[in-house]
Hints:
The chain is α/β, with parallel strands linked by helices and 347 residues long. Helices cover 36% and strands 27% of the residues. The protein has helices at residues 10-21, 35-45, 53-60, 74-83, 98-110, 125-135, 164-167, 169-186, 246-249, 289-303, 311-330, and strands at 2-6, 26-31, 49-50, 64-67, 87-91, 115-118, 142-151, 189-199, 202-211, 216-223, 230-237, 240-245, 260-266, 269-275, 334-335.
Amino acid sequence: MRVAVLGCGTMGWVHARSYAKLKEVQLVGVCDVEKEEADKLAAACGTTAYERFEELLDEVCPDVVSICLPTPLHCKYTVMAAEAGVHVICEKPVSSTAKEAEIMDVVCRSNQVRLLIAHVGRFFPAYADVAHQVTTGIIGKPGVAHARRIGPHPGLLKNWYNDERESGGVIMDLMIHDIDYMRSVLGEVLTVYAQRRTLTHLDYAWVTLKFEQGAIANLEGMWGYPGPFQTAMEFAGDQGVIRAYSDETNTVIIRQSGLSTERQSMEGSDVTRKHEPLLLRKSPELQSAYDRELSHFIECIQSGSQPDVTFHDACMAFKIARAAIESAHTGKLVNVMEYEEKGGFPG
């Protein structure tokens, strides 16, 4: 299948590099309004760069497009792709409002194209394994779960993350991974209660979910953590506990901050050596979670089969995240099933 990538930021690079490795697709173009960014990605992946999405659609006629744009642009470009008869793989969250999500769904259905929302969390091997073990009863009936997802503030690289009206903050953009994952394992969410603290380049949230079958999950999310990106999860049941912590399963762990200087004496003279911070992929994989996710979505488009993450799943993750944002602003418990969105993200 002929695929294209719209948006050449961090996630655009991830999608394009995955497509470049997949045998079942041909990456026919990348597009970004910042042409230099598109040129860099195109050069890295051996494809063509475009500045206008309309031009890409006309010239290369893709079968599928990955939309890796800021959340407020998801609806506009999903509609544009669908009306051109192009299947859509859109980065999470699905949109900025429930109304936009509905429009995306209706337009894609009316044009008979697939709309798949990229919640990659379920495609990480540790998460898939833990989900399988919990749902098959290895730890008995789950009662309490915990998840943590913390890392640097993305607003240091892309300014739109700093505007909550666009990004939805740490709950909507980062914690939504764990919201979707916990719902996939524990079922429908009954209530949500959230606390949140925000400062310049710091966004911390603690969200408690109560599920219809009685389990409780506590989720911790943080933008602005002064260290490497980390995830953790734990499920406790009446017959055992299972957990997966990213910082305990890394193949290589290197901790070094700043620029250090070492002075050594060589043949009677002082030699100064500067050591740059070393960045290293910590757990090398033959196939990344993004490779697995995009390969799965392409297969679903080709076969017409149901994806592991449905559009309904994506909308429910959005609704729960939106209810958590509301709870954090009001300080009140929110009943998810009764919650109706009052507008876009709060400003």
